[in-house]
Structures are given as C-alpha cells and as structure tokens.
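> run fold Ohr subfamily peroxiredoxin
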Amino acid sequence: MDALYTAVATATHGREGRTVSNDGKIDLELAMPVELGGNGQGTNPEQLFAAGYAACFGSALGLVGRQAKVDVSEAAVTAEVGIGKQGEGFALKVTLRVELPDTLDDATGRKLVEQAHQVCPYSNATRGNIDVDLVVE
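> ok
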C-alpha cells in the first residue's frame, strides 16, 4: 500500500504521560482511567481509539451511502472501546453504535453499515484481531 497520508504522534511516559502530534494539533495529557486504578485526569488510548474509529467509520458510511445514492449525512457513530485482561495480557473489544436517519428503512441501513465495515480502514485493521459488534439504531 502506498500511503496517501501519514499521521505522526509521539507519546511519552505511557498511559501516565502526554501525547503530541507532529503538527501540534494534538497535545493531550494522558492518565489511567479511574476504573483501571488511575486518577482519570487525562484522556487515554481507548478514548483516542474510540474517537478515531467513530470518525473513520462515519466517513466510510458516507462513502457507501453516496455510492448507493442514499443520504446518511445525519448519521451518528458512537464507538465504545473496552479493555480487559486476556490471558497474560490485555485485549480490546469494540461496539459501534450507528444511529441512522429515521427516513432510512432498517434493511437498507443495515446493509450500508455492513458495507461501511468492509471499507473502513479501522475495521480492516481490527478484523480478526478485535471483536467488533455493529449495532444499528
């Protein structure tokens, strides 16, 4: 694959540090969530992954919607990223909740969401590695 764009960010001190993008548009304090024993005073990798996945999936949905000549511009995607123990390490799981316009019938909406899941780069990166549940609302 020839990259059309490459994002660059550097994190220091892991989950209790800071992450900064090379262009300075992201400059965030990181902290463990309270649920994992931290103080919750900063963002965490799971929130950042959720934000990126939701945005990317929304764009993929827009693409397949335009190709099908179906307006999904008012759709909203919420990504829930969970982290938990798996064996000796940790693993992630994702639920994508896609709220579609009321004007869209259920079958068409479900088909577009499944098509978006096939073209979204985040979905392609996680396929076979992370459980991803699609919920159409």
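The chain has a mean pLDDT of 96.
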